[in-house]
């Protein structure tokens, strides 16, 4: 093999190696909810690429409380959807779902949502970019967007967007919107978000899993008269 031949051979080997590495970093995990096997593609290289325990808590709740929280034909948005499990379960339970996350997460999110809902759901879910606090009025105008439910699993942790997260809940939530939020408690600084959240929303504990440090909350907007404006500071 000439010099050029070795060069292309080594390029081929390098590309092959990168494909193998890439394949090795991707996992499939199966879950069972709402009468379906749900296959989720996960990776290990970012927060949104694995299914977090809070998502399982929320899915379990949705499945087991589908009479009280009947999602059929309801408009649902999930923020920080990650791999999409919660959005998929809400879709399988009959909701019209918009699954959102950062742009770099949308490829895998779309893949999981599409593969697990195609021909199985009353309403085909949408996948859309929603970076917290960014272009909210442009992409989700208050005048035309009405969500019956906002769902969020494990969106509070050590990241610099807690102000923007609160703004996003505030923007998307109408007076009759129900927020279902599974919160994993970690460090004190992030945990204080709950207090700030309560300046705008009434909070009710739906279930508590002390061994996992996870609490599932239901929240609704406080009436404008009683809400204290948040300083939007962490
Ligand atoms: C810990 S993961 C939880 C993922 C999923 N909800 C679950 O429970 O499996 C946090 C999610 O929030 C998303 N996220 C973080 N910062 C964000 C931001 N500024 N705007 C929108 N999404 C964000 C991440 O991309 C990730 O999908």
UniProtKB/TrEMBL annotation:
Keyword flag Transmembrane: yes
UniProt-listed InterPro entries: Methyltransf_16, SAM-dependent_MTases_sf
Xref: SUPFAM superfamilies: S-adenosyl-L-methionine-dependent methyltransferases (SSF53335)
Keyword Nucleotide-binding in annotation: no
A Gene Ontology biological process term: methylation
Keywords (A to Z) from UniProt: Membrane, Methyltransferase, S-adenosyl-L-methionine, Transferase, Transmembrane, Transmembrane helix
UniProt GO molecular function: methyltransferase activity
Membrane-spanning ranges: 6-28, 40-63, 75-97
A Pfam family hit: Methyltransf_16
Protein name, UniProt field: Methyltransferase like 21E, pseudo
Organism per entry: Strigops habroptila (Kakapo)
GN (gene name): METTL21EP
